[in-house]
Amino acid sequence: GEDVEQSLFLSVREGDSSVINCTYTDSSSTYLYWYKQEPGAGLQLLTYIFSNMDMKQDQRLTVLLNKKDKHLSLRIADTQTGDSAIYFCAERYSGGYNKLIFGAGTRLAVHP
Amino acid sequence: DGGITQSPKYLFRKEGQNVTLSCEQNLNHDAMYWYRQDPGQGLRLIYYSQIVNDFQKGDIAEGYSVSREKKESFPLTVTSAQKNPTAFYLCASSMGPSSGRVYEQYFGPGTRLTVT
A103, B67, B81, B109: which is deepest, by most CB within 10 A? Predict the structure, then answer.
């Protein structure tokens, strides 16, 4: 079945780059997404990448997709304390309707 | 401002009582979704609706019910049959499949339900 896996925790120093990794199983996924969740809040869509792309850059965010290894990563440049949150990777289910399969989320802690 | 509202933010109920969570959107989206979030887990799909007056069960529909009488509204009822209802509930919406768009789902702020 479909599955998305992420490491649960990442700690970085303010100003450094953060790299959050994700693996997925559905090779037919057309879209992959990164969402951010701040404490007690809903999910905010950060960015997405279409499966025929290798990379997408959006200001401080860079998404890399290795379709062969089914590996997705999110790089945040110049990480700030405001980036502390849980980051969810999600793949769009290829089975017909707009269902998203989410990973368990990576908690990013940014320290001075 | 366009967006998704969920109310209330916090809800407390006694075991054995049904409770209804509200979700309203003014994004003119056709599709709406309910997810459940438990600590340390990803979101799990409860129900979804692609169009008014139609909805489908997601992965964990047992003990829940929904209705979709209006495009803007997709309320979720947590029934007494739900064995472990305490969780954070998130509503989302997206454009429909026929729109040809990327199918981004936009989320509301969530309702934290505590049942004792």
Answer: A103
**Segment A35-86, tens digit of pLDDT:** 999 988 999 999 999 988 999 999 999 999 999 999 999 999 999 999 999 9
Residue of B nearest to A9 (CA): B40
The conformation of residue A98, written as its DSSP 8-state character, comes to -
Q: Is B4 exposed, middle or buried (0-12, 13-18, 19+ CB in 10 A)?
A: buried
B5 touches A: beta carbon within 8 Å: no
What integer is the mean pLDDT of A18-46?
Answer: 91
- Pairwise CB contact (< 8 Å): A42 & B109: yes
Q: Which residues are B4's β-sheet partners?
A: B25
Q: Which residues of A touch B107 (CB under 8 A)?
A: 35, 42-45
Residue ranges of A 48-87 with Cβ closer than 8 A to chain B: 48, 50
Measured between beta carbons, the chain B residues lying within 8 angstroms of A31 are 102-103
Helix, strand, or coil (residue B85): coil
Q: Chain A residue closest to B32 (CA)?
A: A98
Q: Which residues, including other chains, have CB under 8 Å from residue A96's CB and lie 6 or more apart?
A: none
Q: Can you list the pairs that B99-103 forms with residues at least 24 positions away whose Cβ atoms lie under 8 Å?
A: B99/B30, B102/A31, B102/A48, B102/A50, B103/A31, B103/A92, B103/A98
